[in-house]
Specification:
Layout lengths: L4 H14 L4 E5 L2 H13 L2 E8 L6 E7 L12 E3 L8 E2 L13 E6 L2 E4 H7 L3 E7 L1
Antiparallel strand pairs: 1-3, 2-3, 4-8, 5-8, 6-7, 6-8
């Protein structure tokens, strides 16, 4: 059993991108599904689908990684910020750009899963989950 689902999710994505895989699967949860859909909006993923295994009620999330025209992954790196042992929260005034605006900081807020740009625009803070670039 994994104690840090978000950390496991982003490391699976990073490892899949590093070896050039087109897709990755992760255990299903609504929180991870919302994060995956936000990464799709930001352009790091091309498709997000929920798969149910036949004969059981177990679900998984299938994500397709985005690649550019040269065949390199758009996801180049991730950094976990808030961890299960140390939760980090920030107001909208402390949420800054990642890698000069080429990356994004994913935040879990009362408004749902949002990026750093959306947090600044909506003036909403929350738990800083991770940075992706």
């Amino acid at each position: 059993m994994v104690s840090d689902r978000v950390g496991d999710f982003i490391i699976r994505l990073q490892n899949a991108a590093a070896i050039g895989k087109q897709e990755a699967t992760v255990p299903y949860s609504l929180h991870l599904l919302a994060i995956a859909q936000k990464l799709k909006e930001l352009g790091f993923l091309t498709n997000v689908a929920v798969k149910e295994e036949e004969g059981s009620a177990k679900k998984t999330i299938l994500v397709m990684l985005a690649y550019d025209a040269r065949g390199t992954a758009k996801l180049r790196g991730v950094k976990r910020i808030s961890k299960p042992g140390r939760r980090l929260y920030a107001p909208h005034t402390k949420v800054h750009k990642v890698k000069g605006g080429t990356g994004a900081r994913i935040i879990s807020s009362p408004a749902g899963i949002i990026s750093d740009a959306e947090a600044r625009k909506a003036r909403v803070g929350g738990e800083e989950l991770f940075e992706i670039w």
